[in-house]
Each structure stands twice: as structure tokens, then as C-alpha cells.
Amino acid sequence: MSLQQGFNIKVLQVKNEVDRNNLQQSNELDFILFSSLEEKLFDKTVSSDDASVILPSFNWNPLNELKKLNQSFQVIGFSCPPYVIIDDDNLTGLDVELIKLILLNWPIHFRILKGITNPYKNMEAILRNRTADMSSCGAWLTMKLFVSKSGLTPTYTEQCFTFLVHKPNRLPEATFMFQCFQLSLWFFISCSICFLVVYITIIQRFSSGKKIGMEESFILILNRLVGNSFEEEYTSRSRVLKYILLLWRVCSFLIMTYYSAGLPPYYNDLQINSVNDMVKMNIHWLERQSDNLKAYVRSFGGIYEAIADLFIFEKNTTVINMKIRNGKFAIPVESLPGRGLGYHEFLDEYGKEHMKVLPECLMKLHSVYVMQTNSPFQHFISRKILEVISHGFLEILFKKTVDKKHKKTVEGYYSIYIGELNNLLSLSKIQGGFWFILFGWILGLVCLINEKNRK
């Protein structure tokens, strides 16, 4: 049929999906125009402001289209663990595995940007030039990076924008027996007891003329603590007081052994546990990718303005690793569900050991994939992402893609103090506890021998 003969156009009322399928398989009409105002007849990804034109003998498939054009699906990204992890030329990560899952059997090519200080702006330019189909590694939705000019997929994970701050140091090992109290308090208690013992011994000898030993003076102190006077003969309660003294020694022995083993964390540095602590302690944060982040954080007002004033843009990672050594600088990172962590890969060994995740979320970010404007693949990929999320595959992919080395590094950032994971039970502290126990037994043996000799 030529165009001059005109089209065979009819207006029909379609009541259900069966009528729609029958019309699609019919050859009586040249084309069928469905109004998308009837939402029940269309896929949820189709906008209600558009119209869907379906030709009878035409079935568009994204995979077939790529094969026909002999092209691959181009994904742009950079090294951004845990989304994209580059290890010995092997490409893994949450984004890599998720894209492979939703685009099963598609010819996919991952284009990785290397040696670029601001990769987000470069990915923005690449998508606008239409030399790639989709980007990865991004919290694009909340960061408002060219969102209005590009296609977006649904949010596939939520992130927490927070900081890596300096961990506190534990008390030195030489003071293991003072971990349960401050050293000054222990010194005061020891001196006061010694003074009382000496004082009571002298008073008893001058007042009664009896020769009284230090042990009896110590028992008199305990006798006084339970509400009795010094003049009362302690012999009537000698057995009870000895039991009390024995119980006190056992409890002291257990407490000192417990703390000397280094089990509970005690610190000699100020701890940073909130954004307010950062403001009070004047902790600056070093951003290396975007100098626009300061204005974005300030736009939220309140405490965010004070945090924005502490912003320093520094794109040299070597300088950043040097500055964090004085404990007055923080690093912005993104914390993911399941103790995932992003944008920390540039830190050296010092940073991995001495930095921890701030237990407070400054703002919530949402990860989406950004695609070309009016991309023919957008609706298909969006539907696949929703299917993956609804079936709970995202958590499985995260556990699968993050290797043991990365997990160990991330666990170190979530530890509270320096050396927590490696030295939870420090051998030197356990040895210190052993020598403390041995000293106590020797002292007890000397007292026992002395008591027998006096009898």
C-alpha cells in the first residue's frame, strides 16, 4: 500500500489486556495508537504524559538492537570501592556485579577513568557527549549532579555521608594496673591507707602500750569502716574481719587481673563521636574530588554551616595522608548498609590503622545510575533494578563482591581505638597480669610465714 492511498485508521475502545494483545496480532490495521491515560494497559515505567505507538510485526528488544548494531553497552566509572574495585586488573564491586546481573548476556564494556582528580565531572561530560550509555560510582540523586539533564534509574542503595576521624590512643601498657581508675586516684587511695595504718599503729602503741603490728592496724581500719570504734576489741570479730579481708583481696585480685589483661577500652585522648565534637575541637575535613561540596553542605543551615566552615579542598592525596597524622583532620566518606565504606581507598597504612568512622550521619545519599538523556535502555534497566531489589539480591551481591582484604580494612575503620582488632588480648598485657598475680601470691606467702612465726 502506498502512502497516497492513506492509512486505515479506526478508533476502538480497548477494555482489557486481552483486547490489546488481539489488536497487536491483527493485520487489519496499519498501526495502533494507544492513549496512555489508561494506566492499566501499560507498563508502570511508561509515563502518563506520553503515547505508545505499537506497530504490528515490530518487537524492539535492547539486546537484539545491540547485536544488530554490533555495539556493546558502555558503562563509565572509576576506582570507587566497594562499587568498583580494581585489583590486579580484575574488575569487581557492587556496581559491576549488579550491572552484570540486570544486563545478563548483554555485551558490556566497562570504561574506567584513571588519574583524574574530579571523575564525576568527566563522567558528566562523557554522558552528555553520548560516548557512554551509563555511569556508576555515584550518589547522584542527592548530590544534584546534572540530574535534571540526564536519565535516572531507581535508587538501588542508600548511603550515609559521614567522616573518618582520628581514633583515640589507649593507655600505655606500663600503666595496665591503673586502667580501671585514674593514676592520681590510685595514688591518693594508696597514700591515704598507708597514712592511716601508720597513724593507728603509733596511736595504739602509745595509748595502750601494746605492741601492735601493721596487719592489726589494717584490720582496725576495716573495723572502723563497718561502724565500730577503735577501742572495741577486734578479737570478737576477728574471724568475720578476716573473711571480709579475704573477700576484699579476692575481688581486688579479679578486678585487677581483668583490667590488666586489657579487655575494656580506656583512652588518654579526647574522643570524637559526633559532628558537634568536630566543631568544638575544630577538626577540619579534607575533600579531594569536588570544591562545590562546601556550598552544598552549607545550604542545609544550622550545624551544617559550622561544618562547611571547616572544609578544605585538597586534591593531592599525599598531602592528605600527611595532614591526618596530627589528629586535627577528617576525611569525608560514604557508609553503606552492612558496614560498607566508600571513598577511602587513597589512605595509606597510617590512615587505615588510626582512622575510624564517625558514628553519626551528616546526610543521607541515594545511589542511582545516570544514563544518557532519552536513552532507549532506561525503562528496561529501571525495571530490572527494581526486580533485583525486591528479591533481596543486593545484599547477596555486596557480600559476594567485597573480598576479605577489603572487609578487614573496613572493619578497622569501624573499630573504636587503635589496635583494637589486632591486639584485643595483648600478650604483653596478659604477661603483666601474670606477673601481678605472681607478686600477689608471693606477698601472701610471706605474710603467712610471718604469721606462723609470730605464733
From TrEMBL:
Transmembrane segments: 183-202, 243-261, 430-449
Major place of residence: membrane
Gene3D superfamilies listed in its UniProt record: 1.10.287.70
Superkingdom, natural source: Eukaryota
One cellular component term from this protein's GO annotations in UniProt: plasma membrane
Location in or out of the cell: Cell membrane
Membrane topology: Multi-pass membrane protein
Residues in coiled coil: none
Keywords, comma-separated and alphabetical: Cell membrane, Glycoprotein, Membrane, Receptor, Transmembrane, Transmembrane helix
Name of the protein in question: Uncharacterized protein
Native source species: Cryptolaemus montrouzieri
